[in-house]
Design goal:
- The protein has seven helices and seven strands; from the N terminus they run αββαββββαααααβ.
- It has 228 residues and is an alpha+beta fold.
- The chain has a five-stranded mixed barrel.
- Helix 3 packs parallel to helix 7 and helix 5 packs parallel to helix 7.
Length: 228
């Protein structure tokens, strides 16, 4: 059993909330985060001392007026596991967080922590498309996405992704995170459990994207850290 599977089995349903205004995390995706606010330093420390789990959730519009309090969040987020961390001398953290599962948030729990905690239910993909439908949607996605990276070394990575054995649902999740889809539409894609609908909506978003230039110099490895 993998560490990710073990973490999901041990998840108690109490989600440490890490609300962000411009980041939608998906399962299968690894994202670097820079943690500097005191409440999220405490959240990270508590996670590292226990199950290493954090739930990333997108803030709803209007969050700016209540950022220091409890601004409204979307009902679905992503449970993630810290897979690497570095604590700086001043108490800040740089972490790598891997998305594990969609979660639906329920009632928030009163605690003594600086950060927020909510009850959460793990979500699974479904219904799943037939093999024929999945193959057709995968092919259609490749036809839409690959031409946009014709002059980029990323095209080879994307072609390998399309030709690999990653199921359609996780494939859509990786693409939804990586492509310049509007944040609000990324949230819509996260909330779609029906895999065929998710793929169709992603195809629509790719069709509506403005042309963009991609070159080797545009891509950083590793990418910059996102701040809380």
């Amino acid at each position: 059993m993998s560490d990710d599977q073990q973490s999901l089995l041990q998840f108690t349903g109490a989600a440490r909330l890490f609300p962000l205004p411009n980041l939608v995390l998906f399962p299968q995706v690894v994202v670097p985060l820079h943690i500097f606010e005191p409440r999220y330093r405490e959240l990270t420390a508590d996670a590292l001392e226990t199950d290493r789990l954090i739930s990333v959730v997108l803030l709803r519009p209007g969050w700016e007026s209540d950022y220091e309090g409890k601004p409204a969040i979307h009902p679905v987020g992503c449970l993630g596991r810290i897979i690497a961390e570095q604590k700086r001398p001043d108490g800040r953290y740089d972490i790598l967080l891997r998305g594990l599962s969609r979660v639906r948030f329920g009632v928030e729990t009163a605690t003594d922590h600086l950060y927020r905690v909510a009850q959460a239910q793990l979500l699974q993909d479904g219904p799943l498309p037939t093999v024929e439908t999945a193959v057709a949607l995968r092919h259609e996605l490749a036809e839409r996405v690959l031409p946009r990276f014709v002059n980029s070394p990323a095209q080879a990575q994307l072609r390998e992704l399309f030709d690999g054995d990653l199921p359609l649902g996780p494939l859509c999740d990786v693409l939804s995170f990586a492509l310049p889809v509007p944040t609000v539409e990324k949230q819509v894609l996260l909330e779609m459990l029906d895999v065929a609908r998710r793929a169709q909506h992603l195809i629509q978003q790719v069709d509506e994207m403005a042309p963009f230039a991609v070159s080797a110099s545009d891509r950083k490895f590793p990418p910059d850290f996102s701040s809380n």
